[in-house]
Structures are given as C-alpha cells and as structure tokens.
What we know:
By secondary structure, the protein is of the alpha+beta class. It has helices at residues 24-34, 60-79, 103-112, 114-117, 133-143, 147-154, 170-175, 190-202, 236-258, 268-281, 298-308, 310-316, 319-332, 335-346, 349-360; strands at 4-13, 41-42, 49-53, 84-86, 123-129, 159-160, 163-164, 216-218, 224-231, 286-288, 295-297. The protein is globular.
Amino acid sequence: MRTVGVEEELLLVDPETGEPRALSAAVLARAEKDDAGQDVFEKELHEQMLEFATHPQSSMESLRAEIVRCRKEAARHAGEIGCTVAALATSPLPVSPAIGVNRRYQWMEEQYGIATREQLVMGCHVHVSVESDEEGVAVVDRLRPWLPVLRALSANSPFWQGKDTGYSSYRSRVWGRWPSAGPAEIFGSAERYHRLISDMVATGVILDDGMIYFDARLSQQYPTVEIRVSDVCLHADTAALIATLVRGLVETAAREWRAGREPLGHGVSLLRLADWQAARSGVSGALLHPETMRRTSAEAVVGALLDHVEEALAGTGDLERTRAACEELLRRGNGAQVQRALMERTGNLRDVVTECVRQTQA
C-alpha cells in the first residue's frame, strides 16, 4: 500500500486580535528546545508562517491523527511565546509580510520583487510514494486534469488584505506569480522530465530545482510524487480527505500507465482555465469537467473524481469513508465558504480569524 505524508503551512496570529505575528523563528526555537531532534517543524519564506511535515502513513485514520497532533503541537509551541496558529491559506486581516533572514529568501526577494514580498500564502502539499521516477512521471502526466478538483475542495482563502477577493482560493492566484508555478505539459518519460528541469535551472530565472513549483512534481528528497495544488485546509478532516483522494489518483494513474493507457491530452492552456475556474468558485459554482473541459456542476465533477478513483479507494478500504466525507464537505462548504459565512454572521474579520483558530485546533 502506498504511503502518504502531508506538509501544512500555518499562519501565526495574535490570539486576541487575529493579526499575523512574525514570530516563526521564536516558535521554531521553542519547538527545538522542547522536542530536540524531532525535525517536524520548518521555517518558511515569511516570518508569519510555520510549516510542519507528518511522518508517512499507510492508514488514512493514522494520517488524520498525525495532522491533528502536529497542529496541536504547533499551537502549544506558539502559545508559549504569545501567539497561536490558524489553518488559513491567506490572512483575512491586513498584513505586511516579513521575509525571513536567509540567503535564499533574500535572493528571491531581489529576483522577484513584490511577488516575493506578497507571498504570505499557506498551502498543503501531499506526498505519495512511487516505485521509480518512471512511475512518478507517468503519474504526474495522468494527474493533470484532476488537480483543479482538489483546488476546489480545499479552497480556503477568500480574503486578502482585509477585503473579499471574489475568489475561493485567492492563494492560488498569488502563488501563480512564480515563473515556474502551475500546470505542466505531458513529459512522457523521466528522462524528458529531468532534462526540462535542468534546462529551467540553466536559464537562471530560478535559483535551483527546489524552485520547480509545478502543481505535481517528483519530490527532491523522497521517493514520492508531491501534489501542491491545495490550500491549507481549515479542518484536519478536509486535509485527510485531500490526502486520501491524492493517493487514489496516484494509484489510479499508475494502473493506467501499467495498462498502457495514454494520459488525457489537454493542453496547458485548458488546464489553466480549469484551475482558474476552481480557484474562483470552489465548490459553490460550476467547474470544468476533467475529461470534457466543459462547465459542469461542482457536485457532478466531485462525483466524477470519486468514480475515477473508486477502484483504488476500494482497494485501500477508503471508498465509503471518502464518499461520505465529500458529501459532508459539499453540504457544509469548504474553508472559503465557512470563512464567508462567519464574516456574514459577525461582520468582523478579527472574529473570522479567532473562530478559525478554534476550528484549526479542534
């Protein structure tokens, strides 16, 4: 059974005002002091961010428990220095992001200017094990049209600098400013994949292969495919759902490859439209169907995704639980819908943040 790991980026905020706090260095120092050698928490581009990585898991129940544990540990460490954590993909309240003191981050600021300074966005990256680079690239090629559905399900960033953006995932619009971000072409082989990466680095536009920000890529560090489209999810249950769907997509793609089925040949231009539509409407409006690239209801597109991965989910015992979780998310709404409902009820973005802090750690 394929193992799955999750990386989540959390926003550090003041527990009373909800305003972002640039305290990641202090939180990391506290975490290292309390749990030396655990290596769970990591520094990110901005000082208002904190990242953690779970251990690989085969059971989705165990993965969810790991996400909950890491969130609570992050909140504990943050609380000891006077802040807390929120699983918000952008800050609803106005913020002046503080870039970390790090040679790499300083290079990025000099190279990309305001695009770097405004990158205070929090994502959820899912790693799924693969047997080889060849299998991994075959999987990446076949995942492409299904990734916008994950974007829609995970969307959790409707507010930016104190205003409603009109998007469900505005994080994805900010993230897309990187020159190497977004959907990629079909590679066809690991050799072609690695050659393109080398050519991209050789341009000098990006610093190294760590800045390959494709929606799906081979991991630099692990024998995994890394899926990078999701906003950090407000609820741990949603993060676990996204991870389960990603494993189903990876297994389904690998089976298609072994059976000699070619990937759907949608060009990058169509994939960008599907991604934009998912970011705009989330699951509250129409999406582009991954197979036809025509507008279809979100419910029907999520149903198509479940049908696509049904055999893989049944094989791991996750099918019924995943169907129920998708139905619950469509009923309750994703993080963007929850945030907007809170804003409508309270009329105050500070209250939105403080309630999201509570839900993050529930």
